[in-house]
Amino acid sequence: MSDKIFAVTGNKIASLLIDENSLKFSSHKFNSKEDFQSSWNKKISLATKVEIKYDSIKSFRKEDTDKDILIKYKTWAGIPSHCEFAFSDNEDYEIFFNLMVKERYFLRTEQTLTPFEAIRNHAIGLLAVIAFTVFSFYQAIEIENGSVEEAGSGKARMFNLIIEQLGVNGVIAIGVLIICYFVLQIWTRFSNPPNQTRYLSPNA
Hints:
By secondary structure, the protein is an alpha+beta fold. The chain has two domains: 5-105, Roll (PH-domain like); 115-191. Helices cover 44% and strands 27% of the residues. The chain has a nine-stranded antiparallel β-sheet with strand order 4-3-2-1-7-6-5-9-8, sandwiched between helices. It starts with a strand and ends with a strand.
């Protein structure tokens, strides 16, 4: 489908190869299809590899105001999963979408999100931030009072060390800043919901 290696950003992925059967993501960067394929075929490799076969994809979508593309697909075991990534070069978006429509026959649809659809994920994030801020606040109080239990794991000890350095006021200040950011995002998206382009699988 394409000999080009696309530079992408995402969770442990840095390059994308669009071949005849699937989308192949790797955590390593490559200059050619041959180098990508050679690394991909190695049984033992330090690279993170993600392969998404076309017939497993349910849809992929992108908001006009966001660079990320969200792919929803099913794993080999039939378990729903997703992959989120963005192209480093803005011109690659059009190349990718054209390949998916013209060669893989995905159906393009466009819609303006409803206000509640636009804020749903941000509202969940806001609730999570509030809950974490409250937990950190009480943890900071216990640390100042010397009543906190000794952490068993390294991550817990690191968390307590950070909370101790911030103190009660620091935890509140950072928590409020993040909460204000989410509130602003929610208000902006609710007032002016973005357009979303979806590409539906021809097998859907």
